[in-house]
## 1
Amino acid sequence: MKKFINLTLLFAGILFLNSCSDGFLDVNTDPKAASFDQVQVEYFINNSITGAQMNPHDAERAFVLYWKTAGRQHRQNSSLSLGGYDDGWTNDYYGSLSNWLRTANQAVFVGEQQIEEGVNFAYTNNLIQVARIWRAYLMSEFTDNFGPMPIDAFQGENPEFASVESVYNYMLAELRDAVNSIDPGTAIPSNIHRFDKAYGFDLEKWIRYGNSMRMRLAMRLSEVDESNARSHFEEAASGPIITTADHAFKVQEGGGWDDLTAVMSREWNAQILSATLNNLYVGLGGIPSERQVAERFQDKIKPADYMGLRLENHFGIYTNDPSAGFWLDGLPQNIDPRAYKAFIIPGWTDNPDFSHFPSWTQDAFTTERNLMSESGEPLKTIDATGHWNAAPLGNWGDKGPRNQLAGYVGTTPRLSQRFRSGNDERIFFAEWETHFLIAEAAIRGWSVPMDAKTAYEEGIRTNFEYWGVEEYLGEYLQSDSYNRAGTSVNWDHTTEPPATVTKRYINGYTNEEGTYQFTYPVNHLYSNGNVKNDYLTKVITQKYLAQLPYLPLEAWNDHRRLGLPFFENPSVELPIVNLPALNQGNYMESRVTFFPQRVRYPSRLSNENPAGYEQAVSYLNGPDAVLTPLWWAQQ
């Protein structure tokens, strides 16, 4: 016979729950609140994990327009990429995140009350620990976006905001205790496995996830509290961790319009190749395009020393993007083999991963576009079939409207349909991340299960398996070829690239040939711009590429923490209102003030809880602004 928690106790919180809206205050809702038909711990766990997959409304705002944009996993020339934000998007996401956290809190509270009243199952304690591990993830999502957040609310007390440092210490302690409190010998019955869409309540996998999450969060503190970071990391890494695809935390996506709908499924989001990704992909690994593309694209492949058409009157050039001002009228000689899998070449319409979105127009199939003259007449028509390009962000001034080519759906590589149709699995933590974390820890001299090179190469190997490009692995790992950021793959090749390399181009207006001194970008955010090809740059470059496309928040986190990999500055033909520090006198530098650092709190917090809002902002060490760095990030 099923045992149920005292419903009178639960009902006591319902009125309070219903009196709160779906906004910020929901994260502080009394965890005693629950409805009569939701009194088993597994129900709450299921609702929280399912909700956090994000319905299309939330996913578009948080995952696509905020995380993927800030992490440069696609080119979105608005919002966070240029220092802006949208209060409506923030209110919507914050309300939903608060609900997921509230439900995770209820799972813990209900389980603890069942045990206290003696109406629990033998496995109830294990469900509580699963909920605590999941709650720690949700807390990290919260604090990595906004910053300070309440902790006391999780014990049902009157909530007080805590600093990011305190939140991190709490999460790390929670993960340690939750993992250690799981009893693997007390299995969770198969009839409730369906309430855990990630692991089916496989306790061994939850232990691995808890330890790996602790490694992730510990590494976040590497630049501000290394002793604490090292202690937590080493302890977590000594236990069971995520090392194979079977261990990964992932949830099957679907179609339609519910919480399990694919997070990148909205057809109107083009999700085109970013300049950041392109500079990392091109040349990296030395794998020839001719071995990767269809026969009909073979004549599109260009020599390695060719930059393309120079069209500086139609592209932003006040940027440190080393490819700015050029349009490659073909395919690069060599490119990372994951690039053509992740982003499909314009015009490759018979590729099964070619995205036809938006399906109600022919934009995806239209590859001919114009460059306009100053008088508004067509100056040059370009057919971008078989062309590979990514334009920099920014305010291009008058050049923007004159360029009908760059950033257009049909002329630019766009995200594979694999991730947009609802047939894939959304990844929250993959095996390659564990290996790249270990590689970074080894570089720092921490005690970890394997050496840095082994972990680094294992991270690449497992990600190549994910993309189905294992055939290139051996050659790739031995490559000394630099990408456009000046980084190579080969672990033992740490020679810095030359300052400049002579390249060829064709003047796009006169068709005259010329030479160009290609300059590898200087990334002042890392090691004062003195290195481009050291061990840590290699690790984070590979980690960044591997996290595409399901972990954009982690990509953004690493850039905020380390300044790696190289992110180009938006071009400033005209000033960018929300990036006031960036101008034509310093656009060749890399500065913290040129990149988004967080998401502002929603307006309803200051309106409905002004005291709480002031407390939260007091812990920011700066204004409630997109450009205010979090505690663990570069300042």
## 2
Amino acid sequence: MKDFWSIVKRYVNPYKGYLGGSVLLNILSAVFNVFSFSLLIPILQILFNINEMHYEFIPWDSTAAGFKDIAVNNLYWFVTGMMDKWGAGNVLLLLCLTLSLLTAIKTACYFGSTAVMVPIRTGIVKDLRMELYNKILALPLGYFSQERKGDIIARMSGDAQEVETSITAALDMLIKNPILIIFYVATLIAISWQLTVFVLVFAPAMIWLMGFIGRKLRRQSSEAQLLWSDTMSQVEETLGGLRIIKAFLAEKKMSRRFDAVTGAMKDKNSRVATRQAMAHPVSEFMGTVMIAIVLWFGGTLILGDRAVIDAPTFIFYMVMLYNIIQPIKEFSKAAYGIPKGLASMARIDAILDAPNPIEEAPSPKPLKEFRDKIEFRGVSFHYEDGREVLHNIDLTVPKGKTVAIVGASGSGKSTLVDLIPRFYDVSSGGVFIDGVDIREVSIRDLRALMGNVNQESILFNDSIFNNIAFGVEQSDRTSVEAAAKVANAHEFIMEKEEGYDTNIGDRGVKLSGGQRQRISIARAILKNPPILILDEATASLDTESERSVQDALDKLMASRTTIAIAHRLSTIKGADEIIVLDEGRIVERGRHEKLLALGGYYKKLYDMQSL
């Protein structure tokens, strides 16, 4: 329960006003329910004419009897007086109408108490998903290299929904059910404390049974949610790899994989659902057993020589006792729902509590412009598993210059570039801009100075206009078109039926590779950053597309500080300096002609590409 209370404190606090309304309405519902059913006693008295006693009014301040006895006596006195005046039939009609009115008020209060919980239920899942989404945005790129996207999607969808359902059920349990139970138990004690003590003997057995089943359910729920993540991961992988699946005739193989994980999930969910289905029958059986025993015990009290309760009052007692069973049933449902929600919350907290090594400086230094140079001073980097990627890198990128980074796959090129915008932090050494360690400035200010064009064009399922204007506030059509023209994209955009309003589909699937890349370049041009990072921006293009994209890149690079990862060495011949990396170390550096003259690693790469 400690875990549950922590969830309640985290997410229910903004909705305390709704909780107060729910408490008030539930109290009113319980009060009107008790008073409405109390009318059964005089109704039964009239119907069966089983009370021949004569009642006289007792003053309310009298000390001759207790308040309960005075209230019962005066109620009977009032009813019998009306019967003498208006007749039994008319009084019966009046009592039935009063019963209906009180029941209408009770059900209205009950509906209101449920309705005010709706903003809490919907608000909690919205807040939870927003917190999870913002955490995903804040986590470094390295976190997602170790996690499956399908698993994260499953946690944001199914797990968040399960937490919502669990908390809502628990809030009902903690607000509505205790109020009802308290009022009903108080009424039962007021009617007959002997019977009530007898009934309460059986409550611990029911609570223990529900807790036993609930503990097993939580473990199985966690396993079921893990299998749901596997399912979502396979769906995500399938959608992303349909071309390869079809090309390699792997449909049956993928189908078998999916069938295996969904089959396992079906078996696990079946066991969870079976245990959940036990909630109603178990509580129904326990309630019926309790009713039967109470009927027997109460009957002996009525039939005995010294009856402590009359028949109409006993029937009222049984009605109230039956009413208390429903809140107990809801307790049992919540007892199963809470463990499922806690299991899902544990999976969500694995993301929310994930440490973020990319920390903001407590008092960041201002960095509003780039004036001089970027420096790598003794930079080394290794991943969490200890595998070293970069070793003792010293590099200076003067303002306005173009530095190209080349090397074989796995040599550390992309990692080196990712250190500049702090997608990762150095393990030792430091990266400096204008002499200031980038860890001492605001991440937002740092990345505002940079524009990225990657090998894989990262576009969104939106219009061309919104993709170009992405991240640039208050962009107008004129500036977007101007950026597209510089990027050699305006012409093909205008050939589209809807022009800049054309939706490009998921990841820009409706565009060719060259068109996608030119949209990315237009986006960088519109941002107009002083520092440009190119990560093999033309590596995946055909010759004709590369020519158009390279022309756009040349325009983009003009008068900017550029750091370019190059796969095709022919594209970086004019770089001011070329850095050659091998196994995380700089092995050669210089201009194109100088490196060729050295006859070393760079010339080997160049000759291989020439062949």
## 3
Amino acid sequence: MQIKTLDILIILAYLALSVAIGFYISKRASKNLQSYFLGGNAIPWYLLGVSNASGMFDISGVMWTVTICFVYGLKSAWIPWLWPVWNQVFVMVFLAIWLRRSGAMTGAEWLSTRFGNSHGQRLSHIVVVTFAVISVIGFIAYGFKGVGKFASIFFSYDLSFSLGSMAISSENAYALIIIAITTLYVVKGGMYSVVGTELLQFVLMTFACFAIGYVVMTQVTAEQIDQSVPAGWKDIWFGWQLDLDWSNLLPAVDNYIRQDDFNLFGLVVMLMVFKGIFASLAGPVPSYDMQRILATKSPKEAAQMSGFTIAVLYMPRYLMIAGLTVLGLVYFKPQLLQMGDNMDFEMILPYVINNFIPTGVLGLILAGLMAAFMSTFAAFVNAAPAYLVNDIYKNYINPDAPAKQYIYMSYAASVLIVFVGVFVGFFIDSIDSITKWIVASLYGGYTAANVLKWIWWRFNGHGYFWGMIMGLIASMVVPKVFVGVFDLYLYPVILVIALAGCLVGTYLTPPEDEDTLKKFYKTVRPWGFWKPIHQKVMAEDPSFQGNNHFGRDVFNVVIGVAWQMTMVVIPIYLVIREYYSLGISIALLIASSFLLKKFWWDRLPEK
């Protein structure tokens, strides 16, 4: 694709402005690690919320979601429950408050508030740092694959070259350039640079979403959509079977559905809910979402930030996804038919932009899509070095170094993480393969230990360590034993193995120090199985009030999931002209917003 000079100038101006913003505000970040990684806990919650939403709006994710929306229609709204996307609702309702009360800088440092300074805590500390670094490397590889493919389609210059015996494709060369620019301002400015540039990036991404939404609303009719989709494509509800028949329109799509193992859709959704509840109770993984929570000024603002992330993310994002899907359905079908069984749905995005977006607007949209990658990448790059520097270097190697030395070590750690992530990216076959590895294999073993750490007083650092280790091993080994079985079906097996590791590790070792448990319980105030510790705290402080909001939190989570779901389907219904369903969804959005205002927002604790 050959884009015009004006569009190239707009993209270059955006890149220059991003770097300039990063460098301009970088002085604030150089005071100490608290400023570098958490913005000195001085950034307003709504700015952190926009930054968090920007980090979740990644180009690779958009391309994957367009694929599932094309294939499954409205039922695709359920498929991101694989992560699950509504873990953010659990965080919003209560987990952000619990996490922020610790006052920690990283998820690994938080463990010392739960397990004290025991041998088990040190083991659990190491395993969380390892998990955090591996997950960030995985996501950098994921982003590297997506942005390289994206850029090589739109920029026609051949940048391929050889590095010794290694051939660097044009696709990878573009990815290297964009990653280098992003790394430059992230390394220089830390959290301040990330948040500052992500505000600009979010504005551009939102413009790109509305521009694509406008194009599809003016270029495609409801009749064209009806002629392009099979029966049931517009239905969000489902039975035991998926019941989507593409054989008369795109026969190869039926093969795609069989490969996904989604034909028993009712069972898939049941398993997604089962997995999702446990995964969500575990809390955010040690990455940029957790870092934004720890960067807020207070527990109340941590909850507000998490809710605001949901409020500003989904409607613009799904307006773009629905628009790209519909344009692909109506106009890209001949190209897909020519591909046969090797359909590449990731080509829908470049096809639409190439054929429907005018010069000038094209540059802004491409800058917005590039911003979608850069914001996600920047968030990860800023998160991981905190674990290496604060939790390893400062904790075990040089605890008394001056602040400047920690900052310089953070620079080096950022560059190292990027280098390793990019190296891994060279060996990834597709966005889909790395997505499934992250969701199933990496995160599969995270759940059991991280649920128990919140809700059970007897759980200790050794139990956490062995639960994480057994879970991660099971996540990698079980799929190899049950070859060809859908990863989601194996989740209960992985969960049981991880839970066994938790219980064996806990009961073969003594409980954590009683003073540590009492301090954690009084500070964090979780609900769960804390009766022995609650009684000891009450004996010392009769005025203490435990957490009796379990029922209210469950209610708010259920309402919050429905609230989030309406923001997914509203833009889809708008784009496909399903106005009756759109009206019902808007009514549900208003009702759920009212309930959350009354039972969540108005009752948030001040501390």
